[in-house]
Amino acid sequence: MTGTKARAARPDATSGAAHRFATFPARPDTPEPLDEPARDDIRLEQVMAALSDPLRLTIVQRLLLEAEAFDHTCGWFGFDRPKSSLTHHFKVLREAGVTRQRQYGLERRSQVRIEDLEERFPGLLDLVADWEPQEI
Question: pTM here?
Fold first, then answer.
């Protein structure tokens, strides 16, 4: 690890426990999450398959290390990709149980399921946070 990536530890709004990654409280009017697997149904092979794509790994890493709010739109990332491509990548992450998405009008916003993933696969998010893309 190069030491250039900082992680904020903030208390979880529901339990008061500190996490290694920044979490933000939900507003009272936050929409319900879209369909996603229950915590106990999240499968390691599906999570690893979702994280095997560098763009999806980048999405999760940025949400872990650079989040500025409770959840973020795909536009927040600034990727120069077609919307249909981004929609696919966010869907893969949600269906694997890596992220949670909520519908706000016409846009979907995402956040990492930190508590669920830490419970199911301790240390996995640390690996994602420390990942450095290979230069080609």
Answer: 0.79
